[in-house]
Amino acid sequence: MANLIVTGGAGFIGVNFVRHWRAVAPADEIVVLDTLTYAGNPASLDGLDGVELVVGDICHADLVSELIESRRIDTIVHFAAESHVDRSITGPDAFVTTNLVGTHSLLKAAKAAWLDTGSGTPHHFHHVSTDEVYGSLGPDDPPFSETSLYAPNSPYSASKAGSDHLVRAYHHTYGLQTTTSNCSNNYGPFQLPEKLIPLCLLNALLGKPLPIYGDGLNVRDWLHVEDHCRGVELILKGGRPGETYNIGGGQELRNIEVVDEICRSVDLAFATDPTLSKRFPEAPPARGGSAAELKTFVEDRKGHDRRYAIDSRKISAELGYAPKRDFAQGFAETLRWFLDREDWWRPLLERAAFKR
User: Fold this and answer.
1) Which CATH number characterizes residue 187's domain?
2) Which positions fall inside the NAD(P)-binding domain (predicted)?
3) Which of 253, 334, 352, 353 maximizes the CB count within 10 A of its CB?
């Protein structure tokens, strides 16, 4: 039995992990530490037993220290981050504060509780990072591995790169038992409508433009969030202290291909379920058209990395990881979830952060 703090556990990937961990380790106690910015949604935790939500900032080391002591925490799974690249371009300060200063605050509190007191408590600090720290790949370059050089190109990725280095330093300097994972683009349930897939999916349902940066040929490796959570589970259970593991989906797709799949799937859903036309009358397929009519090419993002791809052979060989979903299956499940959970995403669209 373990006692966990999951930072950012009311956000997209964090809440999926909390739900996954509750299913695979029902006896464990989970404290979700989340400051509930626009990216945190406590409603995403509804229906979970044995999960305590603490609204607080990871930058407050005293709060983290108190939680570690009072809840007898032995495991920290660190998802909390400012993560939307567009927002990092217009407002980088928050990314440096949360991703760099916040991670350091957690590390200090963990070191103080688990090492400085001499308690000898077995512990694990797992840090969740991104493939964006490695920069951009050319069309024929091999995928990123754990030994790829860091070359971040946005304030977001630079702040995550810095946090990765701090986690590594706390292991090698102080002996803190840490692991790090760098993942590719996640998608799935509970994802906020600022990222490509939920943004275009909901816009297709609501008859709004589907924005595509530049020529739409930027390539990403797509990872279903449940496969990501399984990868983190394997690292928590068997990862070697001080090591980094890349978690990928093995699904390289151009952004335009992803948008085309969204359009095709939405059209098919309307063709097979007549009730959707009544629920979403502004969607083009509700009036005999196609969601593809909404595709809109927009000015490219500054510093937009051209291609990401993840080499997952290390976690596969050491821990037995393999993604269970290809993109077709994973997106079909995601579409179904968003169609079934209008009660979850409708209120989000009323928030200032998502009004458009």
Assistant:
1) 3.40.50.720
2) 5-334
3) 334
